[in-house]
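Hello forum,

I keep getting stuck at the same step: I have a sequence, I want structure tokens, and every attempt I make locally crashes halfway through. Rather than fight my setup again tonight, could one of you with a working pipeline run this one for me? It's a single chain of 383 residues.
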Amino acid sequence: MRRIISLLENIDYRKDKVNVVSLFSGAGGLDLGLELAGLSSVVGESKALEYFNSDKEKFNRYRSKSIFHTVYTNDMFKEANMSYKLNFPNHIIQHEKDIRKVAYFPKCQMMIGGFPCPGFSEAGPRLIDDPRNFLYIHFIRALIQTQPEFFVAENVKGMMTLGKGEVLKQIVADFEASGYTVTAHLVNARDYGVPQLRERVFLIGVHKEKIEKKYGFYYQLPTPSHGETNEINLLEEKLPFVTLENAIGDLRSNPGPYFEGEYSTIYMSRNRKKAWSEQSFTIQASGRQAPQHPDGQPMTKVDKNKWIFNGSVNRRLSIKEIARIQTFPDWFEFSDGNNMKMKKNGRLDKIYKQIGNAVPVLLGKAIMQPISDFIYKEMLERE
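Reply #2:
Ran it on my machine without issues. Output:
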């Protein structure tokens, strides 16, 4: 107890910033997206992306201009925490502890987190809090304690349809009971500049008393910035979808390490190879399940749930390639834990898991940009 209280007393709060608590933080995809959104509000999107896409030294010179200031993270994934430490400011307190055993959470104005994708039961609409499922309840517990102005939570698409939608209704009701107006949004990452077909649900919470009632702010999902290149979308001023060619074409001769080994029956049960002109399949949290690189010939379906490779150019996407597809910048470093007793594939898999579990950085930015712009406008009006 004393250790936790001491930990909270050492939090680096800033009065001129929006203090952020990140739960289930992983390697920090959602965190970096929020930071980038806060920087975009201040310096403009083009400048923010210029800094972000340059090198780490340049980004570090400007990242403090972001209106968001993360003070505390919590995650149990050791290697992900090591990666987080490599890429984020050292004032952030990282708590590597089971969230169910965390008694107190730091005060904050913004709380974010991609709570683990639990195996929700189809048995009925009422949910049971057990060791495997429903860690979102501890997210809610943190909200009840700290009452931030906003929260953003992310999860898998299946949450929306499970139990004919009753599961999602219950989750939203549970979040709303802690003092928020909650909206659920199903989005595809490719609609926001991510070179990947990845559908995810975002729960956006706006505090009823502190924000909605006081300022009349209601969250609206940003209009997709990318789409098919046709006459209709040209009128809507959408950018074309980002392709694998756009994202990783320059890595052909230098892809870096990738997971090697045999392919399971499950892996070969469906197509795993996209063309250069398309977006990637969803990046999963497993090296063994990584999609195929676009080079070589397409796969062929030969039977029900059975596909085969063609030609000799067939390999899984590399670490560097999937990080690009998840829109992490090239300067972002991932730790494998430095366990030299573990085989190469095992160490690589630690990184594949971190990247696959993450929210694509640019998707996180897009989803949180309306909140960031609202907060920054209020900051300017108070000056």
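The first strand starts at residue 18 and ends at 23. If your local run keeps crashing, start a new thread with the error log.
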